[in-house]
Write the structure tokens for this entry.
Amino acid sequence: MPVLSKKKYKELINALDERIENLYEVLESRVLETANEGLKRRLRYKRPESMCATKGQDYEIRLAIEDFKAILAEIKKLK
């Protein structure tokens, strides 16, 4: 079982909380702006009301995932 200072523990928990909150934020759903958002021209979803988009762009989601993986790697190093 790893032993660490309370300060280090608090830093890890805060970093973990911040990163998971950011991940939730970019993955949060929103209503489509148009009936063909995300599709090539002239294509439309049959039922656009059954679709949703994320608030974050694809690159923001990738960055949030990498950031989250980084804090998990730090936690994994605990001994």
User: Anything to note?
Assistant: Residues 13-76 form one domain.
